Amino acid sequence: MTFSSALVTGGSGFIGSALVRALTEAGVAVTCLVRGDAPAPPGCSVLRVPSLSQAGAVDPGDRRVDVVFHLAAYGVAPEQRSPEAMFDANVAGTRAMVELSRRMGARAFVYSGSCSEYADCGPAGQGVRLREEAPLTATALYGASKAAGGLVGQSMAASAGLAFQWLRLFGVYGPGEGPNRLIPYILRRLSAGETVDLTPGEQMRDMLFIGDVVEGLIAAAEAALQGRLGPMNLCSGQATSIRSVAEEVAAALGCRPDRFNFGARPYRPDDIMWMVGDNGRFVASTAWRPKVGLKDGIRETIAAFHAHGSALR
């Protein structure tokens, strides 16, 4: 790596904890921004702030960092639906983090955006991989707040002379994923000998293993330090149906496909049927390539699931 120090927000989360671990193992001095009295991730020093939106007013003292990875966000978990909290964290919080980064002498700022920033392409867009020029959503609150945070952060960073790397992450999965997510839900149900209620499963998604995401974030930081900036999609570029993900999990566990009740759950009113990205710009700008296919990624996820004391029955 060409940088030796980093500040990470969201370091206790699914992606953040994997990133902190990879950076510390590579010898990078990591500082984790922690809100309030929340526990700090292992392996890093801590900078505590009252909230993300107040981070810009915090005195970092003599702390200096080369790169900031801004992964913290509000609205990912199903229960996080407050519009006020969403825009406070995702928009005002990003503005504050750019200000704090400037004060800490950072040279690059990696913003973890989301595929949710894109508008629903509808039937006309089925089969077309989303490029960075695709329309952004004006209706989905989480996606709109992430897009707004990216635009505000990008503008402020330009004024501060800070390289702002905007990545739009797609379907990240793997060990450490939240229990409310698809694969952990399936694993819990199958391990308990229960059937699994799902939608018909025709939604097409772009799935990317956590290890590839971490390598992508680091590659994005390196590209930013060299002046190659986004927005860019961090994704596999491969379309995978929700049904095929479920069936792949069952096959890896040796479970019968009749354990699934496809169609037992209706599609959500806001369910997007096609969300698959084009990673061409990111691949052309970095040496990054996705390494872990869905089958191997699911097997690694299952191994981690079993290692944490959950036994398949």
Task: Report what the structure shows.
- The chain has 313 residues and is α/β, with parallel strands linked by helices.
- It has helices at 14-25, 83-103, 141-160, 182-191, 210-225, 242-253, 280-285, 294-307; strands at 5-9, 29-35, 45-49, 67-70, 108-114, 163-169, 171-173, 196-198, 204-205, 207-209, 232-234, 240-241, 260-262, 274-275.
- The longest helix is centred in the N-terminal third of the chain and has 21 residues, at 83-103.
- The protein is globular.
- The chain starts with a strand and ends in a 6-residue tail after the last helix.
- The mean pLDDT is 95.
Topology readout:
Blueprint: E1 5-9, H1 14-25, E2 29-35, E3 45-49, E4 67-70, H2 83-103, E5 108-114, H3 141-160, E6 163-169, E7 171-173, H4 182-191, E8 196-198, E9 204-205, E10 207-209, H5 210-225, E11 232-234, E12 240-241, H6 242-253, E13 260-262, E14 274-275, H7 280-285, H8 294-307
Parallel strand pairs: 1-2, 1-4, 2-3, 4-5, 5-6, 6-11, 7-10, 8-13, 9-14
Antiparallel strand pairs: 9-12
Helix pairs in contact: 1-5, 2-3, 4-6, 6-8
Compute the separation of the termini in Å. Answer: 44 Å
Largest sheet: 7 strands, parallel
Helix % is 25-40%
**How many DSSP E strands?**
14
Could you tell me the mean pLDDT? Answer: 95
Q: Structural class of the helix and strand makeup?
A: alpha/beta
